[in-house]
Write a structure and sequence with these properties.
The chain is of the alpha/beta class. The protein is built from 10 helices and 13 strands. The protein is globular and about 60 Å long. The structure holds NADP nicotinamide-adenine-dinucleotide phosphate (NAP).
Length: 299
């Protein structure tokens, strides 16, 4: 397939790019700077100069591809409006296509709010953090748009060897500071390694029926205190983790900080069952602390 990728230099999108290229897809990727274009070229994508905020410059490309994978965000306060404006431009470019444009839209586990002991899946009603509710409004609009075959992906918290959602923990531990957990030590995160997440996107791109939603989690729920202690052990840090209340975290870092303070569980069972997803990396804490380096797929 020829895919237009938005966010191809990001934490999620860069893994998707590698996965798609490895599996023989052709990828045109939006680049808002020379630096992003160079990274995309190095990874065998065709850079498409343009910025999300100015879709008139690039949305025409949607007329020429088989699919769009949208994994771009700048966490700006206007992101909801920016997102809607470029969705509208893409839909306009796709109008009159002979075949619908496949469109993978990225949501996320924070759209389910605090799940507590319950395990979120595709049947659970949404309860989004207010600062992310625009994603659901924009998805609803996209799902009704003509000429679009929409698929919604909800990644769990995404990690990798350099950090991802664990970057803040790693930075603290390697710099000799205590790791700060937000919310409480009982906060749990559903997790997925970004390479496994990328394989889920590819499977959905290639095989998902239009209109489907998939939650992508390899580990249902891991305590953040377990993760923090694993990172500290690996870094040789003797500092015990500390806890910042959700109110303090939001005051210091902004509204998004309520996300990592949610007690969440989420299941990836549907994509395993329906599309044969097979996550290879399922023990983040063990792998990070160095106790389980033999796990398949972890390098
Ligand atoms: N990471 C997670 O754990 C996680 C979990 C669930 C859901 N999500 C969702 O997944 C999406 C992607 O997250 P991420 O963590 O991969 O984000 P990220 O690492 O911050 O990457 C964002 C990407 O968007 C691009 N971008 C941002 N603003 C742009 C603009 N104005 N014009 C063109 N490109 C622009 C960036 O390009 P540059 O390289 O040029 O900056 C980068 O490629 C977000 O919607 C996020 O909410 C993430």
């Amino acid at each position: 397939m020829h895919v237009l990728l938005l966010g191809g230099t990001g934490s999620i999108g860069s893994a998707i790019l590698k996965e798609l290229i490895t599996h023989g897809h052709r990828v045109t990727a939006l680049a808002r700077s020379d630096r992003s274009a160079a990274i995309l070229s190095e990874n065998r994508a065709i850079p498409l100069p343009g910025d999300l905020v100015c879709p008139v410059d690039w949305a025409h490309a949607a007329a020429e591809v088989d699919a769009v994978v949208h994994a771009a965000a700048d966490f700006d306060t206007d992101m909801g409006a920016i997102d809607r404006a470029f969705l509208e431009a893409i839909v306009a470019a796709a109008s009159g296509r002979r075949t619908p444009l496949r469109f993978l839209y990225t949501g996320g586990c924070w759209l389910f709010g605090e799940t507590g002991q319950e395990i979120a899946d595709e049947t659970m009603p949404y309860d989004p953090l207010p600062s992310f509710s625009w994603m659901l409004e924009n998805w609803d609009w996209l799902a009704d748009a003509p000429c679009i075959a929409p698929i919604l992906i909800h990644p769990a918290m995404v990690w990798d060897e350099l950090g991802g959602v664990l970057h803040r923990y790693m930075e603290a531990a390697w710099n000799g500071r205590p790791i700060e957990i937000w919310g409480s030590p009982d906060v749990t995160w559903p997790l997925v390694h970004r390479r496994d997440l990328a394989s889920a996107y590819r499977l959905a791109l290639e095989n998902a029926p239009a209109g489907e939603t998939y939650c992508i989690a390899a580990e249902t729920g891991v305590k953040t205190s377990t993760l923090a202690d694993a990172v500290a052990e690996r870094a040789g840090s003797k500092h015990p983790h500390s806890v910042l209340s959700v109110e303090q975290a939001v005051t210091q870092h902004g509204d998004w900080a309520a996300g990592p303070a949610l007690v969440q569980r989420m299941s990836g069972e549907k994509i395993v069952r329906d599309l044969g997803w097979n996550p290879l990396i399922e023990d983040a804490a063990g792998l990070i602390s160095g106790l389980n380096q033999g796990s398949p797929g972890f390098q």
